[in-house]
Design goal:
19 helices, 12 strands, single chain, alpha+beta, six-stranded antiparallel barrel, five-stranded antiparallel β-sheet
Length: 641
């Protein structure tokens, strides 16, 4: 139910009903006044909370900006680079949002708090002042009225007339106060409809602007978010693959079924306890020792908390004799003689000191034939491992059976389909060889995707002939497997992740090597994806003795990335116009034009003239000067003048 109407004419009558209606308005204005005071208090608390939240978000954003991801290894994959950069992207996004929130906070006082406080003080405060004046005039008027009515009728006519005239003036003052008060009450009641609500609307509009800014930023962030999710998915897959390899290595080392020797430049190294003579007997002190067989250099380093304490002692070993058990009350002891000291040095080892497959093409071809004939659409092909005993039995049967068709006819599908998938991992020597392992890893770490692909293609041609042939067989098969990915879900990326550790595993089984598995995956993925290019290059190169030099320029990859002459010089120099390469510098001419892809390379047109040409330390490249600038040029692109 709404407030009753206040009529100006009722001010003259000043009836009890008028007073009741007036009181209803007064109560409502007081309630509004209290509500606005509470609202201002809550608004200030809200602004304070927003300011605290903003400061917290800014600190959080700054922390993201300052943190730097450090990945294991000397290089990062594209996924790792994107993930490491993501924290700075998050920080920038939060900072942008906080700038808009700051504007919201700064405007809150102007658009919300001050207008409400002004309405409460100026409008409702004016009504209160009007009420005070009205009450004062009411009291004075009725007091004067009582005195006027108590005048004796016996007074002179002039006195009575003067008293009536004064009473009329007092009544008018009272009426004016009443009218002003009624007018102000109704004015404020009407004003609060907009002057009270408008600040709230303005504040909400600021909130909407802030939220809209967030929506716009979210829309702009969406493509990056999707790419980052893809990078995270790849990183998780790489983690799962690497973790499995690292865990397997850890378990093998823990089981101690075979001696494990970490890669080292020393023949042997580890902790030894050395007997040191003291006045009251002898003590055994732990040293970290190394021995290099060719130089016979033996070093001892005193350690404290695992760190070297002081300068290591170096000796040249003269002899080493194991101590017989009955000659000393300790196990695993031996004596050494060194050139720099007289007498023997007695040492105790932690454990007894002990020291630590060629497969045919037909075998691999049989394996591939089995998969392509009977299991190429198998869901998750090559993901599920087999049982070791079944894998060994399968390999034995495959070697014993001359024709693969015989094996296909005599082997049940359930026996071999998953067990057979582990056969490739039984190869003792990886197809991409230990010798080229680091070069392939280095190529996979190039930032430029195009150069990365070309570099890997070039390295394929440094493989031994049998390895290239095996790689051709396997990658052709894996490309076929990926062509059925709609059924088996084995994309090129998934196959690279599975076969990376198989085709180019590291010779050193260390955690550092395991961290490079992600780059092994990249190498194998590139080779599979570009199999037809690599294959055409392999076949063309294998027939270089019957092909002309110009035929090489027709390959899919530029000639300068195909062959490192130092590895296949016997074939390559027979057709290379620079077959007479010796030391010193000479002048040369460009057979083809070339566009540099890196700052240390030279760009030049066909027929360009070079001076100071000599072999570079980078295989397949020359150092030369052209137009006053010195840089690298492809060896295959020039001929001597």
């Amino acid at each position: 139910m709404g407030l009753p109407t206040l009529e100006f004419s009722d001010s003259f009558l000043d009836s009890p009903e008028f007073r009741d209606r007036l009181q209803c308005h007064e109560i409502e204005l007081e309630r509004t006044n209290r509500f606005i005071k509470d609202l201002i208090k809550d608004g200030n608390m809200l602004v304070s909370a927003l300011r605290s939240l903003s400061l917290a978000v800014q600190r959080f954003s700054q922390s993201l900006q300052e943190f730097q991801f450090e990945c294991i290894g000397d290089a990062e994959t594209d996924d790792e680079i994107s993930i490491a950069q993501s924290l700075k992207e998050f920080s920038q996004l939060l900072s942008t949002m906080e700038e808009e929130r700051k504007r919201l906070i700064q405007n809150a006082d102007d658009v919300l708090i001050s207008p409400l406080e002004r309405f409460r003080k100026e409008q409702i405060g004016a009504v209160k002042e009007g009420k005070k004046q009205f009450d004062k005039e009411t009291e004075r008027y009725y007091s004067v009225l009582e005195k006027h009515l108590s005048l004796s009728s016996k007074k002179k006519e002039s006195q009575l007339h003067e008293a009536d005239s004064q009473m009329s003036k007092d009544r008018q003052v009272f009426y004016d106060a009443s009218l002003q008060y009624v007018f102000k009450i109704q004015e404020v009641q009407e004003r609060k409809k907009f002057e009270f609500v408008e600040p709230l609307l303005a504040f909400l509009q600021g909130l909407f602007t802030f939220y809209h800014e967030g929506y716009e930023l979210a829309s702009e962030f969406e493509p990056y978010k999707q790419q980052l999710q893809f990078n995270l998915q790849n990183a998780r897959k790489n983690f799962e693959s690497t973790r499995a390899e690292v865990e397997r290595l850890m378990k093998r080392i823990r089981s101690a079924e075979e001696d494990f020797k970490a890669p080292s430049c020393f023949t042997m190294e580890g902790y030894l306890y050395i007997q040191e003579k003291r006045p009251l007997g002898s003590v055994w002190t732990r040293y970290y020792c190394t021995y290099e067989k060719s130089s016979k250099v033996f070093t001892m380093s005193n350690t404290e908390n695992g760190l070297v304490n002081g300068t290591p002692e170096m000796f040249k070993l003269r002899s080493c004799v194991r101590r017989k058990t009955e000659s000393i009350d300790k196990r695993f002891c031996f004596d050494i003689e060194v050139v720099e000291r007289h007498g023997v040095i007695t040492l105790q080892a932690l454990l007894p000191i002990t020291f630590q497959l060629s497969h045919c093409f037909n075998f691999v071809k049989k394996c591939i034939e089995l998969v392509e004939t009977r299991g190429i659409t198998t869901l998750g092909l090559y993901r599920i491992g087999g049982v070791n005993s079944k894998v060994q039995r399968l390999m034995t049967k495959l070697f014993q059976v001359t024709h693969s068709t015989t094996f296909l006819n005599n082997t049940s599908h359930e026996l071999w389909i998953h067990d057979f998938l582990c056969v490739y991992r039984c190869l003792a020597e990886p197809v991409l060889t230990y010798r080229l392992h680091k070069e392939f890893i280095k190529a996979a770490k190039y930032d430029n995707q195009k150069y990365r692909v070309r570099a890997i293609h070039a390295l394929v041609h440094k493989l031994p002939e049998k390895n290239r042939a095996m790689l051709d067989i396997l990658t052709n098969h894996l490309l076929m497997v990926s062509s059925h990915s709609d059924q088996n879900l084995m994309t090129v990326s998934n196959l690279g992740m599975i076969f990376g550790p198989t085709l180019m595993r590291s010779q050193e089984e260390t955690v550092a090597a395991m961290m490079n598995i992600k780059f092994q995956n990249i190498v194998v993925e590139i080779i599979i994806e570009n199999h037809h290019k690599v294959r055409s290059q392999i076949h063309t190169y294998a027939d270089t003795q019957t092909h002309t030099y110009t035929h090489l320029t027709e390959m899919c990859v530029p000639v300068r990335y195909l062959v490192r002459p130092q590895t296949c010089r016997c074939r390559y120099l027979s057709l290379h116009p620079l077959g007479r390469l010796l030391g010193g510098t000479r002048d040369a001419k460009a057979l083809y034009s070339c566009e540099a892809e890196h700052s240390h390379e030279l760009s030049f047109p066909q027929g360009a003239l070079f001076s100071n040409v000599y072999p570079s330390v980078e295989p397949g490249w020359f150092q030369a000067t052209y137009n006053g600038r010195t840089g690298l040029i492809p060896e295959n692109y020039i001929t001597y003048k």
